[in-house]
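Give me the fold.
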Amino acid sequence: MNADVRPVLKLRDDTVGVLAAMRGVFARDLKVAFRQRQDLLNPLLFFVMVVTLFPLGVSPEVSFLREAGAGILWVAALLSVLLSLDHLFRHDFDDGTLEQLVLQPQPLFLLVLAKTMAHWVLTGLPLVILTPVLGVMVHLDGNSIGVLCLTLLIGTPVLSLIGSIGAALTLGLRSAGVLLSLLIIPLYIPVLIFGTGTVAAAAEGAQVGAYVALMGAFLVLALTLAPFASAAALRISLSNG
């Protein structure tokens, strides 16, 4: 075999191995989640309950709900994702699977990325699917609902990626849920502001391309940096544990 070809073949084999490992972690997390359906349903039920109860507790007026509806749905989605973050690494930490992931020859940050994407598919994507129904409930028009779904489709992966850093940092600590909220909520604020701002601009008839592009930049930045930070935080948490 030509010596120049061997590095290329080795690189191809390594890439296939990494992708297979990521697919395995992703599929395993989906299977585990469907076996523990209460953890899967809790964020969705919380999302529906917050949006449903908000008009009863504040004001049922159509004009108010139409103006505040996007903010209500975004805050409810943010809190629902936050509610589910404590389970992102917890079960794997308790049964020893997390230590095995750290010892794998594949890069840990890619395995963490696979777990985070599984978390988004199980939590963030169902929230996006439920949004049109709840958007009608708070009297949003069709254009606003469409833009809201787009912002949530871009923004909820950012919430999962940023949240994975906090979940890794607080792994194994007492009162981890409270500490996780204190660490992560300030980092969520820019996503919340631009998510609701995009819908408000669409409702006023303004162009939303710049808002969507900026949220896309948030997603790219989170995809680039968050897996590395989460992997480093996991190593620290496991070494301290």
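Residues 1-11 have pLDDT under 50 and may be disordered.
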